[in-house]
Design goal:
about 45% helix; elongated; RNaseH_sf; five-stranded mixed β-sheet; Nucleotidyltransferase, domain 5; alpha/beta; RNaseH-like_sf; 11 helices
């Protein structure tokens, strides 16, 4: 069928048709490179990163790009991120009389090492559950300590606290907040807090909102990173979970609370601003 007849049928000029053919022959190298970067970051996030997260990562790498363009590239690549569904939190008002809720949901702080929070979750590893204890610095939502074991006992939370205390240079006058779990109320853990000169705070019974940053961290870990069938054994789980917490989550993953930068970057920005003032 002659080109002129087809162009007349669609009411377009022949020059437009030939220009379109030329464009199809031309390979947009820059766009292909961007697609490769988007695909690499999406794969690295284990299919959890959306357009906002990938935009932040690209910006950190020096690539100037908007969220709309990232969304278009993800659509062209057929990339669909997985996100956790809503979580139903219980409401409660009962505090421990001996360990009040000193934090009182004051999750926004002015500097690191003012308040840490901790919690325990479970991870399938081989033929049984393993348990993960994490310590989070609330200033920039940075993971500062963690520990895993096959037993959810006081030793587990003490190891996570010891890790955090050493990692952060043995700070003093830190508030440590947790739920009312028996591990955090144990004599061994409370003695460790006393040794480190830390103030203990506890959520109201059954109220997950009182420790919401930890809840969000665990939801992100389980929805973004941990394989659907868990791990083959505890050593494999430790290596992979540790990589997520201390590297990907702390250093690479943009955090909404930090205006789209990672926790480590947020703390470094504070150091720069403090040095300028």
């Amino acid at each position: 069928m002659p080109v002129e007849m087809v162009c007349n049928a669609f009411d377009i000029s022949r020059s437009s048709y030939y220009e379109y053919r030329q464009r199809r022959k031309h390979v947009n190298v820059e766009r292909l490179a961007l697609k490769a970067q988007v695909n690499r970051l999406f794969t690295k996030s284990r299919s959890s990163a959306g357009s906002r997260t990938i935009k932040g990562m690209l910006n950190d790498d020096g690539v100037v790009i908007g969220r709309f363009k990232v969304r278009r590239l993800m659509s062209e690549l057929g990339l669909i991120c997985k996100q956790p569904g809503p979580h139903a939190y219980k409401q409660a008002t009962v505090e421990r009389p001996d360990i009040p809720n000193h934090l009182a949901r004051e999750f926004t702080l002015g500097r690191p090492n003012q308040a840490w929070c901790g919690d325990i979750t479970y991870v399938w590893s081989g033929q049984r559950w393993s348990y993960l204890a994490v310590v989070l610095d609330l200033y920039a939502r940075r993971v500062v300590g963690w520990a895993m074991s096959s037993s959810p006992d006081a030793d587990l939370v003490v190891k996570a606290l010891d890790h955090a205390w050493e990692q952060r240079g043995q700070p003093e006058k830190v508030m440590f907040h947790s739920d009312q779990g028996s591990q955090y109320a144990s004599r061994k853990f409370r003695q460790r807090l006393w040794r480190y000169r830390m103030t203990q705070s506890m959520s109201r019974r059954g109220n997950c909102w009182d420790n919401a940053p930890m809840e969000r961290l665990f939801r992100s870990l389980k929805s973004e990173w941990i394989p659907a069938l868990g791990y083959r054994n505890l050593p494999e789980a430790k290596k992979d979970v540790g990589g997520y917490l201390m590297d990907y989550y702390n250093r690479q993953r943009p955090h909404t609370f930090n205006d789209g930068i990672s926790p480590v970057a947020a703390e470094e920005n504070l150091k720069i601003l403090s040095g300028m003032s």
